[in-house]
Write a structure and sequence with these properties.
The complex is a heterodimer of chains A (866) and B (227).
Chain A lengths: L1 H14 L4 H29 L2 H5 L3 E5 L5 H12 L5 E14 L6 E9 L10 E2 L14 E4 L1 H7 L6 E4 L2 E11 L12 E6 H6 L9 E8 L3 H15 L4 E5 H44 L1 H9 L4 H32 L3 H5 L10 H23 L9 H4 L14 H11 L2 H22 L2 H29 L8 H10 L6 H30 L9 E7 L3 H11 L8 E14 L4 E2 L2 H5 L7 E6 L7 E6 L15 E6 H7 L6 E6 L2 E13 L11 E3 L10 E6 L5 H14 L4 E4 H40 L1 H13 L4 H39 L7 H22 L1 H5 L2 H7 L1
Parallel strand pairs in A: 3-8, 5-7, 14-19, 16-18
Antiparallel strand pairs in A: 1-9, 1-10, 2-3, 2-6, 2-9, 4-7, 5-8, 6-7, 11-20, 11-21, 12-13, 12-14, 12-17, 12-20, 15-18, 16-19, 17-18
Chain B lengths: L1 E12 L2 E13 L4 E5 L6 H8 L7 E6 L2 E2 L5 H11 E4 L11 H12 L4 H11 L15 H12 L6 E5 L7 H18 L2 E5 L3 H5 L3 E6 L2 E7 L5
Parallel strand pairs in B: 3-8, 3-9, 6-7, 7-8
Antiparallel strand pairs in B: 1-2, 1-4, 4-5, 9-10
Helix pairs in contact in B: 3-4, 3-5, 4-5, 5-6
The chains are: A alpha+beta (866), B alpha/beta (227).
Chain lengths: 866, 227
């Protein structure tokens, strides 16, 4: 034991410089794992601690409809059974505000009306350190975010118009309780007194407001019970409830998924590092053959020698992992703020669990990848010492027929080594599954890796075969470059594996990213609608339409106002499914949710009928007919098995209606300019029912004109919300850009690992190359000839690795777009070809640069050293 | 006492076999100095390797201290080498990543000896290198390296010392010093010394010189007892 440890320590002392590269391979992967996990864990602990502040209470009961007296009464009865310490009402809604005087600008905001005592948990931080108090809101006061002041060009003390009424800005919100977790919102927060909000004209029929009851309940069990009971008893009346605990769990779960996914990415980088470790160890063992022979000669058993080298690898792996933790610490500090802003204000730092996991994965993967090559020391015979060494014979030349080579391989197959290989593969699946938090994901990643590795390995074989005829060419550099590819102990496979995987990863991520961006770009179709109006009341429809037409650019398609009603499916009587009550419907998952429905007598541009017949051109039905007609969307038909001819029962704002399904439509969702409805009714039934309109229009191209239109709309119709699609897409773009940046960073790290492996692989065969070059020089080869030889060799390797990487990336993108993201696949030939060429250039440059010593060294010195 | 009984070595070569050593008998008494000479390819090193258990004979028995080492497994052979046999090679074969002192300590550490440090220093002192213990092999001259190798060979005080062309890589003056050191070890410690050599001067100093030719013993010359 002492011997093993002493030997490991001494060898470490001598070899760490040569194995520096081993270090870095492990360090980068471990750094990635530790950094990614730490960030997510920091976010998680930051957010879950604030779950109460995020919902400002222990329990929120909410509905997207105004409380009816009956619901209110029943809720009160329910609350009477719960030890409620305090309660208050709140309303949240998206609406438009404008400055009373000044710039003609209107902005969409998220308005919240609150009562005195809000919030139960958490704290508002106001600019200038002023304390928050409800008095600031009372009497048409408001608190807003700094960006709104800038957008409207106003200051504290000025007045803004909300729902047609003036409110005085009395302070600026620096931070809301619970932060703005989630990142994406339609507008900035505006806080007003609840009574004042009710006094505006905003709460009209059909307006999209969330009505909340906030509760403070000291006893957690009572709170959880209340949530359960409200969910069970009030669901049919559009009321839901959540506790700070369920909020916490929700955040926790999605963050855990994110953490596991990102860790899997980290693991992939570690595996890339592992391949580096494998290649380093392989060469290292070859170089250590004399030492092993000496130790055996001095009486060390194979076990002792093996243990000494395993201990050495473990030491190196630990040191590399520790370096990785350091890198992660530095990396976390240098994350661009824009990237993390969306995740809320969180103190980022290394977490203990992330560090321990990183160290464990680094150590495990290094040992696993080093083990198989290390087993070679078992074969070293001390007799070598009496015979003199021939290191060049250590590797197997790639010659002879396939069959004879296979046979030789089989004969030389070491059972223990093979068994260890299998165990290592299993262990990798286990580690991957551990990191991914799922067996399926772990197995998929490992198998994917193995598959690509097998392809690369096969490709290496094919490459060597394919270029072999060139060995008979007359041009000396070419002939020798070809011979080099299959020289004994060559690094062809290792380089192909490392660089091929690296380029596969980077190109795959890049082209996926392109597909995603292209998919979102569709929404910016220049011909389509780019402004949307919500909550237009029936009596406003005419006026709004006139205003819109007046402001549109000439030649723009006329604006469209589509009636929208809210409805719920309460029963289905059909050939395949029969759902008698709403609770049956609810059992079918999302079929039980509330749908926006409409009526019209023609198909939209983005629709086509796949089954049955649409009522185009037919007269409206009698409003009092017992059975109406409805057209359903393809997904409803597919997911819930509802067929043409089935009868459905709807609850349209309390009115029960029966309708027969007369057609199935497929809506092209990607083409959003005409909107899309799951249920479209034949005119007649709903014409007189209470309804609001949503508007689609192609707004003016000029930004000032757009702002002016929004402003005038809000001035004239304060309850109408006008959403600028361009702005929303801009916001989505920003979120997307951050995601792209994060993905690019990860891809970059993978590329870096690939490059390092390449440098390492080249550096490791240097000794042999220096010797060969010396012989060739002695025989008269010039530096230029040697350089050309190297360049050809590496170009061939790079081209192949790049081509395989690109092909793999294309396959990956195809699979992911088709089967995971469900978006169109767009081949990216330019990206892939340039990626392959860049890889070639990289390999050639790195290969030749890492070999400068080969070109520089004087032949005599090299020959003597040998 | 080392005894070889009908020991032969053949290796497969192409379709047939190649005989490296024809069956031979040899006995080497304790405390003797035996030189094995012969031209290149005569089987000298193979014979030495067989005695050390570095290779297995095709037939025959090899008894070292009464034990038939041909029946031992790899690890048992390693233990035997560690405690009973010291090696000196033509190319020194010091571990390049270890200092001189550490090189000397290694066999003791492998055997689990407790006072490796003290004994290592004493051995370096014995070969006249007590000042150079902290140097790495690359910082030592050839002669110094070979003396470290001798100190290492003596680490576990083995009864048998095997030397493969110990002076083959040294100039004549340094070679002479190494020979003197080996002979001195033989006299002071009573270590049996078997050396393979081309060096006629060195062979002349042996108690028994075995001449090999084409894998068979061609001559046995015993030195007349010193007068």
């Amino acid at each position: 034991m002492t011997f093993v440890l002493l030997m490991a320590a001494r060898e470490f002392r001598a070899s760490w410089r040569r194995l520096l590269f081993f270090f870095v391979c492990v360090a980068i992967g471990v750094g990635a794992i530790v950094a990614l996990r730490s960030i997510i864990q920091s976010v998680r602990s930051g957010l879950t601690g604030e779950a109460r502040a995020m919902i400002a209470s222990d329990v929120v009961i909410q509905s997207n409809r105004a409380w009816t007296p009956e619901v209110r009464r029943d809720l009160d009865a329910q609350l009477a059974k719960t030890p409620v310490a305090a309660r208050q009402d709140s309303i949240e809604m998206a609406t438009m505000v404008r400055a009373e005087r000044g710039a003609a600008v209107a902005r969409m905001v998220e308005l919240r009306g609150v009562e005195s005592g809000f919030p139960f948990y958490g704290r508002f931080t106001l600019q200038g350190g002023a304390p928050y108090s409800h008095d600031l809101l009372v009497g048409r006061g408001t608190l807003v975010r700094p960006e709104l002041l800038a957008q409207l060009g106003i200051r504290v003390g000025d007045r803004i118009m909300i729902g047609g009424q003036p409110f005085t800005v009395r302070g600026v919100i620096e931070q809301e309780p619970g932060g703005s977790a989630g990142g994406f919102s339609l507008g900035s927060r505006v806080l007003v007194d609840l009574a004042d909000l009710r006094g505006t004209g905003l709460l009209t029929f059909g307006s999209r407001a969330t009505h909340q009851i906030l509760l403070k309940i000291a006893e957690e069990n009572a709170a959880l019970r209340l949530v359960r009971e409200v969910r069970a008893n009030f669901r049919e009346r559009f009321v839901t409830a959540r506790s700070f605990r369920s909020t916490e769990n929700q955040i926790g779960e999605s963050l855990e998924r994110a953490e596991n996914f990102l860790s899997l990415v980290g693991f992939i980088i570690v595996v890339l590092g592992g391949i580096g470790v494998w290649s380093v160890t392989r060469v290292f063992v070859q170089q250590k053959i004399p030492s092993v022979a000496i130790l055996k000669c001095l009486g060390a058993s194979t076990r002792q020698v093996l243990a000494a080298y395993v201990a050495q690898v473990a030491l190196l792996a630990l040191a590399g992992s520790a370096l990785g933790v350091g890198l992660a610490a530095v990396g976390i500090r240098s994350i661009p703020a824009s990237l993390t802003a969306a995740l809320g204000r969180v103190a980022y730092g290394l977490t203990l669990s992330a560090v321990l996991q990183g160290l464990a994965v680094g150590l495990l993967v290094s040992l696993l990848f080093a083990l198989v090559p290390l087993l070679e020391v078992r074969r070293v015979k001390p007799l070598l010492l009496l015979r003199g060494f021939n290191l060049a014979a250590a590797g197997q030349p790639w010659t002879g027929s396939l069959v004879s080579r296979l046979r030789a391989r089989l004969a030389a197959l070491d059972l223990l080594q093979a068994a260890t290989g299998v165990l290592v593969a299993i262990a990798l699946v286990v580690v991957a599954s551990w990191q991914a938090g799922s067996w399926r994901a772990g197995a998929a990643v490992t198998i994917g890796f193995a598959g690509i590795a097998a392809v690369l390995y096969g490709a290496a074989f094919v490459l060597v075969r394919a270029v072999s005829p060139l060995a008979s060419m007359r041009w000396f550099p070419l002939r020798h470059a070809v011979v080099s590819l299959r020289r004994p102990g060559n690094q062809t496979r290792v380089i192909l594996l490392a660089v091929g995987l690296g380029s596969f990863f980077v190109l795959g991520v890049r082209s996926l990213q392109n597909d995603l961006i292209a998919e979102f770009a569709l929404a910016l179709d220049p011909k389509g609608a780019d402004m949307f109006l919500i909550d237009v009341q029936r009596d406003q429809a005419g006026g709004v339409r006139a205003l819109l037409v007046d402001r549109q650019d000439p030649g723009a398609p006329p604006p469209r106002l589509v009636p929208i009603l809210r409805a719920r499916v309460t029963g289905v009587k059909g050939r395949e499914v029969t759902l008698d009550s709403f609770s049956d419907v609810r059992g079918r998952g999302s079929l039980g949710r509330e749908y926006g429905i409409t009526y019209r007598n023609a198909l939209e541009e983005n629709e086509r009928v796949t089954e049955g017949r649409f009522w185009t051109g037919e007269p409206p039905l009698d409003p009092d007919a017992p059975l109406h007609e409805v057209s359903i969307e393809q997904s409803i038909h597919e997911r819930f098995g509802i067929e043409v001819g089935d009868t459905m029962r709807f609850d349209v704002l309390g009115r029960i209606m029966q309708a027969r399904v007369t057609s199935v439509r497929r809506v092209e969702w990607a083409d959003a300019r005409s909107g899309g409805f799951m249920f479209v009714f034949r005119p007649g039934a709903l014409d007189k029912a209470p309804q609001t309109f949503v508007g689609f229009l192609k707004g003016p191209a000029d930004l000032t004109a757009r702002l002016r239109l929004q402003y005038d709309l809000v001035t004239k119709y304060p309850n109408v919300t006008a959403v600028d699609g361009r702005e929303i897409i801009g916001r989505i773009q920003k979120v997307l850009d951050n995601a792209v940046l994060a993905i690019s960073i990860v891809g970059g790290i993978a590329l870096l690992s690939g490059t390092l492996i390449l440098i390492g692989a080249v550096a490791m065969t240097r000794y042999q190359r220096v010797y060969e070059a010396a012989i060739l020089r002695t025989l008269g080869a010039s530096t230029r000839t040697l350089g050309t030889m190297l360049a050809i060799e590496y170009c061939a390797l790079g081209l192949l690795a790049g081509a395989i990487g690109a092909a793999g990336a294309a396959a990956l993108t195809w699979g992911v777009t088709r089967h995971v993201l469900d978006i169109a696949w767009r081949p990216a030939p330019v990206l892939l070809v340039s990626g392959a060429l860049l890889t070639t250039a990289l390999v050639a440059v790195v290969g030749v640069a890492a070999s400068t010593e080969v070109l520089r060294k004087k032949p005599l010195g090299a020959l003597r050293a040998e | 006492m080392i005894e070889l009984r009908g020991v032969s070595k053949t290796v497969p070569s192409g379709d047939g076999t190649l005989t490296i050593l024809h069956p031979l008998d040899l006995s080497i008494p304790d405390r003797h100095v035996v030189a094995i000479t012969g031209p290149s390819g005569s089987g000298k090193s193979t014979l030495l390797g067989l005695i050390a258990g570095l290779d297995a004979p095709t037939s025959g028995q090899i008894l070292v201290g009464g034990t038939d080492i041909t029946t031992l497994g790899e690890d048992a052979l390693a233990r035997l080498r560690g405690t009973h046999i010291g090696f000196v090679f033509q190319f020194f074969h010091l571990l390049p990543s270890l200092t001189a002192l550490e090189n000397v300590r290694v066999p003791m550490e492998i055997a689990g000896a407790r006072d490796a440090e003290r004994r290592g220093r004493a051995l370096l002192d014995e070969v006249g290198l007590s000042e150079r213990g902290h140097h790495y092999p690359s910082q030592l001259s050839g002669g110094e390296q070979q003396r470290v190798a001798i100190a290492r060979a003596l680490a576990n005080d083995p009864p048998l010392l095997l030397a493969d062309e110990p002076t083959g890589n040294l100039d004549s003056t340094t070679g002479r010093q190494v020979i003197d050191l080996l002979l001195q070890v033989n006299r002071s410690r009573g270590t049996t010394l078997v050396l393979v050599t081309h060096d006629a001067d060195l062979a002349a100093l042996a108690d028994l010189t075995i001449g090999l030719r084409d894998g068979a013993i061609a001559s046995r010359t015993a030195r007349p007892p010193a007068s």
